[in-house]
Amino acid sequence: MNANRPTLVVEDIKTYFFTKAGIVKAVDGVDFTINRGEILGLVGESGSGKTVTGFSIMGLVDPPGRMTAGRVLFDGQDITALPENEMRRIRGRRIAMIFQDPMMTLNPVLRIDTQMIEAIQAHENVSRQEAWRRSRDALGRVGISAAEERLRAYPHQFSGGMRQRVSIAIALLHKPDLIIADEPTTALDVTIQGQILFEVQKLCRETATALMWITHDLSVVASLADKVCVMYAGKIVESGTVDEVLDSPLHPYTRGLIDSVPNRNRRGVPLKQIPGMTPSLIDLPEGCAFRTRCPRSDDDCLASPALTSPVLGRKARCYHPHLPGAS
Amino acid sequence: MAAFVIFCALVFIAIFAPLISPQNPYDLGEIDIMDSRLPPGAVGLAGLTHVLGTDDQGRDMLSAIFYGLRISLGVGVMSGVIALSIGLSIGLAAAYYGGRLDAIIMRVVDLQLSFPAILLALIVLAVLGKGVDKIIIALVAFQWAYYARTVRASALVERHKEYIEAATCLALSHKRIVFRHLLPNVIPPMIVVGTVQVAHAIALEATLSFLGVGLPLTEPSLGLLIANGFDYMLTGKYWISFFPGIALLLTIFSINLVGDQLRDVLNPRLQK
Amino acid sequence: MVIVVMSLLVFFGVNVIGNPIDILINPEFDQEEMERAIKALGLDLPIWQQYLVFVKNAFNGDLGKSFVYGMPALQLIVQRMPATLELALTALLMAVVFGIPLGMWAGLRPDSVAGRTIMSGSILGFSLPTFWVGIMMIMIFAVMLGWLPATGRGETVALFGVQVSFLTKDGLAHMLMPAFNLGLLKLSLVIRLARAGTREAMLQDYVKFARAKGLSTWRVVMVHILKNILIPVVTVLGLEFGNLIAFSVVTETVFAWPGMGKLIIDSIQLLDRPIIVAYLLIIVFMFIAINLVVDVLYSVLDPRDPHRRGSGDRPGNPHGGDRKG
């Protein structure tokens, strides 16, 4: 792993789903870069295409979906064109993924140790005892006590938070260079969420693992990430460092997201909402996808905006961004 | 779709059998025992080409199959229709009245469904004896429960919705609404169950006839034809059993295929 | 409770069939001899008394004497049980061993030529009238090709005191066709179940997660998916086993297999009441026993909360996890 090369470079990827109802452009031209040890937050509502982005990077898009364009460079190597058996060696070992709902992601009829040992043995030729030992240590590292008994249990015998810790432990088994975490704390209580966030951040800093955290929750991003990309209707509409984007959002959508988060300081002030609903990805509005809900839109917006740099070091896809300094 | 065409063809044959058969195999005047056991394609004494051969009484197989088809389909469909009516009423009643009645009905249904069809039919026939009507009763006896359960399941879905609306609805038209809404919701799954059940009934009737407890000799269905040929198979006269079997197979198969396709079409869950 | 109901139904129902007096007692007998025969057979008592006698005897293991054979009904049936069970178990085994792989293949590649063929084949499988297939098999394999013996059971060998035929080569040769014939319907069922289960399993997140871990496709299929579909397949098969035993009636008739099924058919024709009654009771008893076994099997295979089992003929989607913090 070359320390100077970015761990992940995503170049203009497009993933479309070819359904009977039409072509769903789940991911329609997404670019970003994650450097070694960096944490990127990918923010968007449901239906924005963020989960599909994660799957596209892993090569796990199932039919009727297909990645139709773009490249993914992992540690400098183009993995989009990689044959399946080589991609399989990367999955789980160098790029790991954590899913949203651990009840559904852990096979309910198999024991925890089975599922962890197989993850180890898929990539390394170690004995079952050795794999078992490593699983137990991994569980300890994510804060699960009495790991030995836990290993013999089945997923339904754990609480949601514990199951997610197991998923994280599995992700860390091979010390991957990149972890893609798809809304791993969404299904959990706020307190547990906080704990998990803390642990993940700590682990990533310790091992210099790059992390892509997919979420719809801005507050999570605020406390965790270094950089943030905001997705809307399959495209990135804003990107920059966390402080910049959250303090002075350029894109009206980002601003709307931030404004709609309840804030203790503004008690009594009515919550602002983004009017309208997320558009269906089959039936997008003409031009800028956010046009129909945007307070700043005009006829210019009937043409699709490109990703530009209205401010140095940051990107936004808008004809009328909120420039810092202006209101 | 080919299945549907085949099925229609078979129904057509069944209905018009007397008109299109080369021979009426049950009119003693038309058959000649000297013609018996001729292989397919042979020409009989009367100059008639027996496309599928003749059986041990000299009957033309093709004609016998046509007539047999009539009986098989007739019995199968009739029992299906009766079972459907019974199952429909019971299922609707169970869904509509709910409570204890529902529980009792469902216990009976479950009990009956866990019992093998063939055994049930055997018992019924053992008790009642032979005859077309008794066969139909036996066939109905095992089928109604399937209809009842399917009907009740679909009706329940609708009923729960109704009661939410009913809170704001006039109580007067409630019964009417229930029937007008329950019924259409219930029909699609019932059609699917119906096709499979009719196929099953036809198969069961054939099996029972083969075993000798089914239809009497005067009204031979395909099952009996096959049974007749059973004795001759060891001497290589395969056609007496073979062709009626093919006819039976085609009937059941086409009905099942149609039912299968119907199920895919009518199943909202699979329409992704 | 079920047994009581069943026995009541059966006893009274069967008693209504024809009048066994006329059938079994030689009409040439004069009045006195007739009366003696009637008394001996217990037919002179009022029906409800006959029933009570029957029940009392049943608890002593005596389910009546066959009118035709003159032997205790229970003994007759038990004598022929191994043959039927052997046949049924082999049929079941065939259905599972061939059905699960075929069904999984059809589920994994539903749109391939193989997948679609398998599915159509399965519909064909349960459309084929069993008895006709049996006849055709005999015709082709025994008469025309001469590969396999046509009818009857092969040599038997004692295993734990029970006569079994699968341990001899001759026995196996005799069993091959009938077992396949009997199992055909179940094979189709297993294929369809396995296919549906596989297709449903493939949509689940845990399959995707397994792939994300870098597991080989083989492992994902053979371990993750297979274990999940075994549960519905086993439960349904277990319940169907009773059906299989009942349906052996047909196969036994075609292949002249000396099992319980043939006995019951003959008995119905001959109005041999005690046999019929005894047979039905035993069948019901076996059903209940099978249900119990299936319950146990299910709890072994499915480690989850037993309250989440589906009822009816198809267990529902097992994923309904609870979310605790």
Describe the structure concisely for a colleague.
The complex is a heterotrimer of chains A (327), B (272) and C (325). Chain A is α/β, with parallel strands linked by helices and 327 residues long.
Structural class of chain B: mainly alpha
Q: Please tally the helical runs of chain B, counting DSSP H or I stretches of 4 or more residues.
A: 9
Counted beta strands of chain C = 2
How large is the radius of gyration of chain C?
A: 24 Å
**N-to-C order of helices and strands of chain C:** HHHHHHHEEHHHHH
Distance between the termini of chain C: 45 Å
Strand content of chain B: under 5%
Give the chain pair forming the largest contact, with residue counts. B-C, 40 and 42 residues
Helicity level of chain C, as a percent range?
over 70%
Structure class of chain C: mainly alpha
Largest sheet of chain B: none
Q: What share of the residues of chain C does DSSP label as strand, in percent?
A: under 5%
Unreliable stretches of chain B, pLDDT < 50, 5 or more residues?
A: none
The outline of chain C comes out as globular
Mean pLDDT of chain C: 71
Overall geometry of chain B comes to elongated
